[in-house]
Structures are given as C-alpha cells and as structure tokens.
Amino acid sequence: MASATFESVAPATGEVLGTFPRGDAADVDRAVATAREAFEDWRLVPAPERGNMLFRFAELLRAHKDELTDLMTREMGKVKAEAGGDVQEAIDMSFYMGGEGRRLFGHTTPSELRDKFMMSVRMPVGVVGAITPWNFPIAIPAWKLCPALVCGNTVVLKPAEDTPLLAARFVDLLHQAGVPEGVVQVVNGFGEEAGEALVRHPDVPVITFTGSRETGIAVTKAAADHLKHVHLELGGKNAIIVMDDADLELAVEGIVWSAFGTSGQRCTAASRVIVHEAVYGELQSKLVAAAERLRLGPGWDDETDVGPLINRAALDKVHSYTRVGLDEGAKLLTGGEPVEGAGFFYRPTVFADVSPRMRIAQEEIFGPTTALIPVRSFEEAVAAANSVEYGLSSSIFTRDVNRAFRAMRDLQAGITYVNAGTTGAEVHLPFGGVKATGNGHREAGQAALDVFTEWKSIYVDYSGKLQRAQIDNAERPAPR
C-alpha cells in the first residue's frame, strides 16, 4: 500500500475534510489484478441482474441525496441546487442504464444463404480504467461506471484528488446495491502517478477519461502501445449567440446560468457570448446588472448563488486570464478579482469588445468569466462561434425558426440549444463534442454502450452441409 497521503480540502474554507492514500503503480497493479479476476464471473452474471443492481443503486442515491448534496457543497463547493442536480444526474443515469440490462440490443439480419441465421451481439471488453474529474464528482462517475457495469465490464476508478470523499461514498453505495467489491476498485492519487499507471497498464483495455485537452493527448499517447480503446471528453469554449430578435431577458438568464453556474467550472460553460450589434449595448447593461446581483459564498448557504473555485491553482489561473484580457485590449465591465478572505472565490467577470481571435475568446478559462463579442449578422455570429478549436456545446437565442434551424445545422458542436443556455444535457441523448473536445466517442444514451462493448457477429448454419462463401457459389464466365 502507498505510504504517502494527501488531503481533501473544502474550497470555501480551507478546512481539511479527510486524508487519503496517494496511490502509485503498485496500488494500480493490485486493483487491476482484483478487477481482472472479478471480470471472469461478472461477465457471466445475467445482464438483467446487473441492471437490477443499478436500479438498487439509483434508489440508494435517491435515499442519500441530501447527504451527498451536503458533502458536495463542502468538498467540491457547488451550491445546493447544483449539487443536488449533480446527484440527480447520477440517479437518472443509473435508472437509464439499469434498463439496458434488458436491452443491450444487437441486430439480426437475413443471410444470403438458405438455412442460415445471423446476428450481432455486444460483448464486454474487460477491465475499464475510469479517470474522472472533480467538477461533477457524482454525475460523471455514474456516466462512466453505469454503462461499463451493465455491459459486463469491471472497473478501476481513479477519481480526482480534489473529491475523494465523494468517490468513496459513490463506490460504497454501489457495493451496497449488490455490485461485488472486486468489480469496482478505487485507487486515489494524482494523475502523474496513479492515473498514468492505470492508462499504461497492459490488462486495462479501455480507458475513459474526462479532463483537459492536453491531458487527453497524453492519455492517448500513453495508451497507444497497447492499442487500447480510449474515450475522451475534453475541453470546451462554448458560445451563446444572441440575435437581434432574441428575448433579451431570457437570454440574460441563460447566460448567467451558463457562464457563472458552478463558478464557470464546467466543460459546457458559456465563456463566450456572441451578440448582434443591434442589441449589444442593451444586453451588456442587463448582463452586468445580473452578474453583480449574484451572491458569493459557501455552497451550503441557502443564500449563495456562486460558490468557490476548486483550489488555489484554479483561482490563480482564472485571474491570470483577467490580466490577459486587459492586455489584449478587452474592456472589463465587472468582476475580475478574487475575493479577500478564506476560500477560493472569484467575482463573476464580464469582458466586452472582445474579438474572436483574442486569447480570452479562444482558450478555456474554466472559471466565472465570459467574453462579449459583437457581430453584425447571423453569418458572422456562426463564423465566430466556429472559430475555436473546441466543439462541445452551442446555443442561439432567436425567434426566427429559419435562423434556428440553420444554427442547428451549421454550428460545429456536439450539442446545440435553441433559446436556452449551453448547459443542461439529459442522460438519454449522447453527450460529447467535435474537434478538440474529444475523439469521436459519446457518453450517455445508447451511444455510451459503444465505448464499453465489442461487437461480435455470429453465424449459425442449420443446412446440414458446408455452405461456402457466396463468391464461391457465383456463376463464373466460361473461359475464352
């Protein structure tokens, strides 16, 4: 066992919430060996029974929702409503994937030959290495583990070092639901130690990772030698387009929720607002007023609208981008400074007069900062929205159905919202993005099953004779 330890710290106060072993390669080896051994029996558990365990898990999450919500406000910093929503996502995903225990659909199709049956089925892959972030510490583990488990895989989970208490409760409830302890193993620790060892381990054929683009590239390279299945959910630089015919009150409400919810610490956060020049001034004033009304404080306080950033490094990074924006010539309308005192609080920040090529309009900040970009037309708005390397979420506020449908077609993103912000994905549709946001896979919905299964094609010949491939049976032209 690892002798080194690390602490979980409350971002609102600096209070130490717990001490955990800092896992290393030896810990990963032991966890993978246990999960690999458990796989041989778990893959044979009937899928409906695996699904029933997820149903029981969902009920346990529901029963412990208040406890998990409170813990999340303390360990991660989300306000109560958002923390409760995080847990609810896990409940929804558990119910949804529990239902897959009685589906896991394959295909049947007619053969070209007589007296022959053909079908395709999904098969589990083996041990899944799941590396999850701190910003959705209950929801994202559910998004990864529930489909992996119902498909018959076992899992080694490496949760974020900022939220180990929540990961421990998550896995404890899975075990209470009936999932054998060997099926889900946890290794706490840091990415450069436990995470890298998990990615490189030869007995882990699937890696599912949510995090930064740079780390995602490193994961891909480290997994390449073993030709692993690699599923990546990476960054976003999401834009809300506000057209001249938009309902501005609704648009401001959507911007505030998308830009400052979870203190901007979401891959779907709206860090850009692309505004038609006809409503640019009015939207500016409404948005600044709304941002300045937001109350900062600890997540467990019912009066709090915006909680802390996760740690000191995050606070420093966000503030560095405020300096970048000012150096680039953007106009700071509000915010742009840390809050003095305990905790890692940063004031909601709005920049105006931002050009699409500025760094604050191109790079993921991951904090409560958004940039207003003026445009003169719908076409210019779409071009600005598509001018970044990421392509996760997008949004347009307009009353024009033609513009809405063109936006749905032309915005380069895995998700598009019409007359809503950039956040709010539901578990029964695929979640993920294009370009540098990922590598083509999706979480949630039916698409998630493709990450955790291999297709097997099966042919059953009941003709009682050897039927050769159809090319052998075709009539061939006579030789000349």
| CATH architecture level-2 label of the largest domain | 3-Layer(aba) Sandwich
Instruction: Please tell me the overall pLDDT.
Output: 96
What's the total count of β strands? 19
CATH class of the largest domain: Alpha Beta
Total number of helices: 14
Number of domains: 2
Low-pLDDT segments = none
Question: Main sheet, how many strands, which sense, barrel?
Answer: 7 strands, mixed
Structural class: alpha/beta
Q: What would you call the shape?
A: globular
Classified in CATH, the superfamily of the largest domain is: Aldehyde Dehydrogenase, Chain A, domain 1
* Neighbour order of strands in the largest sheet: 12-13-14-11-10-16-17
CATH domain fold name of the largest domain? Aldehyde Dehydrogenase, Chain A, domain 1
Radius of gyration, whole Å: 25 Å
Termini separation: 77 Å
Percentage of residues assigned to helices:
25-40%
User: Strand fraction band?
Assistant: 15-25%
Can you describe this structure?
The chain contains 14 helices and 19 strands. The protein has 480 residues and is of the alpha/beta class. The protein has 2 domains: 252 residues, Aldehyde Dehydrogenase, Chain A, domain 1 (3-Layer(aba) Sandwich); 181 residues, Aldehyde Dehydrogenase, Chain A, domain 2, CATH 3.40.309. It has a 7-stranded mixed sheet with strand order 12-13-14-11-10-16-17, sandwiched between helices. It has a 5-stranded parallel sheet with strand order 7-6-5-8-9, with helices on both faces. It has a 3-stranded antiparallel sheet with strand order 3-4-19, with no helix packed on it.
